[in-house]
Amino acid sequence: MGGHGGYPHKTKDPIVLAAEIINAWQTIVSRENNPLDPVVITVGSIHGGTKHNIIPDEVKMQLTVRTYKPKVRERVLADIDRIAKGCAAAAGIPPDLAPTVSVSKDLVAPATYNNPELTKRLVAVWKKSLGDENVEFVDPTMGGEDFSEYSLPDHSIPAVDFHIGAVDPAKIAEFKQAEKELPTLHSSKFAPVPEPTIRIGIIGMTAAVLDLMK
Asked: Which of 4, 86, 101, 210 has its CA 20 to 30 A from that of 21?
């Protein structure tokens, strides 16, 4: 499979193949998926090779796949496997060396669903306890959250997942004035401030619990 970097014609370069596969995977989102069913395929980790002049035997990648619907997720995972093997076949990789795709079951979480009735009730509580101007609805995101497990796959247990702003207000104003996007979660520049984040979180949770215990 691998070999000398100066003789690529005598090898099957898994790094070049990995690059082709990554690009091809994005066509699942743009050309194979219904645009009304959101899908995200992100390759967050890719490792291959040990030296600049050696073509390695293998490349390992780690992906995150985000969907709202379980059936869409199942199809996307099958498409990922199909495209990886198809690209390898097109590159002349023998079947016994074809890419393998595995799913880490312990890292899979269903989409979070906020119960509409419970959300409406708690929004009223938070507006009263935190101030109307400090509570707002946001668009759905593709962020993953195992909080969804609390409501069970059939959503039989009403649940609400709410987020708390954690960035220094002065920093928000600075970025807003400069018309820049604030650093997001997992960014090296994301810098939450303990105060007033923790205090607001305690107030919000306490107000919600007291109302639900009535």
From this structure: 4
